[in-house]
Amino acid sequence: MLQQTGTREQSPTNVHAIFFSPARSTKKVVEAIASGISETVQIHDITQGIQTDISIAATDIAVVGVPAYSGRVPELARDYLKKIKGNGARTIVTCVYGNNDYQYTLDELTHLCSDCGFTPISSGAFVARHSIFQEVGKGRPDQKDLDKARQFGKQSVKHSRLTAYGKRKLNGQHPNVPFGEVPIVAKANSNCNFCGACARLCPVGAIDLQNPKKTNKKKCIACARCVEMCSYNARKFKGLMYHIARKRFEEANQIRKEVEVYIPL
Prior knowledge:
There is one protein chain. By secondary structure, this protein is α/β, with parallel strands linked by helices. It has 2 domains: about 1-175 and about 255-260, Rossmann fold (3-Layer(aba) Sandwich); about 185-250, Alpha-Beta Plaits. The chain contains 7 helices and 9 strands; from the N terminus they run E-E-H-E-E-H-E-H-E-H-E-H-H-E-H-E. The strands form 2 sheets. Strands 1-3-2-4-5-6-9 form a 7-stranded mixed β-sheet, with helices on both faces. Strands 7-8 form a two-stranded antiparallel sheet. Strand 2 (about 15-20), helix 1 and strand 3 (about 40-45) form a beta-alpha-beta unit. Helix 1 (about 25-35) crosses helix 4. The chain starts with a strand and ends with a strand.
């Protein structure tokens, strides 16, 4: 059973699912990993910020997950995660990517979690439907992915009981490239009825609440939350540049990639 919560209970060895998940794929994976550890999980969705302080007890376990944006931890997620206190709690680090390459994401997230006081015990990269080019990774994470996620959570904690806690080097590459600009943004189509849901749910406030058909390109991070959350199928990525990029991306990323997990021995 997953329980939504804004604060941490004081009982020891709680399991926490902490995620930044605009398109909700990371949410599915993180919750599946956490459910492999316990039937009761405390949920911390930080996609639209942190409303109350999050401080994880040293005896608790956390699963921390983000999507890979151009092979990096999203800047907004990084800012939010820095506000969380890990207090030495064991932590499973995970990222979700669109069947192309997660690059620096896991290593960057591992360092970030360590700096926040967590003790990383394992890391894993999972595939989801690409948020922009949605034919790539379509249907992922599927049941096979989620079953692997649950097993990954179970095995991570089982192994951590047998080893001395401490900071470990997990798989990945340290980021050494700057964040790039987002060249493509989602746009409203004729289905838009100006309900404003996309504007209210946008993590960066890039959509005009009074006129949801207007998107601030400088603010947009192409997270696809507006596309995912619209009940009227009224927002899409489109345009000539998008269609050219989509064709190339789909051709280059057709082969199914599988889950990669790392549990230090």
